Amino acid sequence: MKPAPAIDAAPPVDPTLGRSPEIPGAKDVGRNTLETLVFRGLSTPVALLLVVIQSRFLEPAGRGEFVLVVLSVTIFSRLLGQLGLAVTNRLQAVPASEARPLVHRAFAIGALLGALGTTAIIAWGAVAPGIGAGTAALAAAALVPNVVWQTVSGVLLGQARVRLWNYIQALSPVLTLVGMLVLVVALGGGVEAAVGAWTLAHFLTAAFAVLAARDLVMPVDVPPFLDTAGRTILRLALVMGAFQVVNLIGYRIELFLLEYYDGVAAVGVYSIAVQAAEALWLLPAAIATAITGPVVHEPERDAVRRVSRAALRAALYTGVAATVVGVVAPFLIPLLFGDAFEGATRPLLFLLPGVVAYGTVTVLVVYISVRRGRPRLALTVSLAAMLATTAAAVPLIGEYGKTGAAAASGVGYLVGAALAWIFFARLARR
After folding, report:
1. Among 140, 99, 135, 91, which Cα is nearest to 117's?
2. What does the pLDDT read at residue 208?
3. Stated pTM of the model
4. What helix, strand, coil percent values describe the chain, rounded to 5?
């Protein structure tokens, strides 16, 4: 349930745009940052409760199975979830009245590719040890509705409609919590009940997103979705989605290696450390969400200044929060999740430095990908982080288990962050 960064995508834009009195969100950066933090602050306890429920009622093996099957869906949703930002990119070149047909094209593309992804997830689940086709199918059903609400969210973000964007982002974990309280806690369901609650939450979130942003969706028509506009949206979305997928795999490659070496129960324990550490990215994600609109439209010098200051603030705030987490984690982890998860404490401490450094990438991508239209550079950052993590994980996990996985992940974070700052500095000089 890692919170996804608001600007992980990268629509190319014209970097020569001058200052306009109607720059989206320019006057509301502080308010939008605070509002997003409030929403994220409210959703963080929800995410924590979800992890507690999974840990207490599913136990390590069940928690590990849940994490792996949800991750398989998340990989595909990251690949297809950038359709909304691809639509936002196209809206720079066409009248605002064309928004609805472009959104419809995005929905059609998402449904077609989502069906293919659903089939692939079920096939993987059928051969994966400890998963099964039934559980995989239940999770795979969430893919298309996930793409639908992410598409709507991407268009809203481009329009600086941050409040509605926040509502949609917060709804899925809240509904998942309600579903798990009913199906897992009250009715005593197992892993399939937990996955079913997660899937149902995505369906309901998609329905809310479509109704709340019905000006972007209704009335519905069926456009020729693979025409020139549709192919452009598809190409942009897949390029941006590739960055997302590589980023996600880079975050999670050590989970699969850990499962190979130590089994699914070790994944369940280690995932607690990952969840706690990466929750700190809520802070830079909120900052990135608030500055996206202004950075796209501001003069170059102002955009560079805004992004650099925002990235440094993100590092400072995340560093302070990481210090607090490092102090309290040895006491809170066994208290909240049970003694079976006490082994998550040491990996968490190894993860924190890299998480602080990599949090700045979320902000830097606003300039590298969104402002300057260089998604391949962002993709290079993710690839470098993934390769560094993999290279370190193979020897470290075999020798040190969960702690080795955390150390390898930290190496990847640091490599990716350093490369992102290098790219940012070079683009800014130009």
Report:
1. 140
2. 94
3. 0.66
4. 85, 0, 15
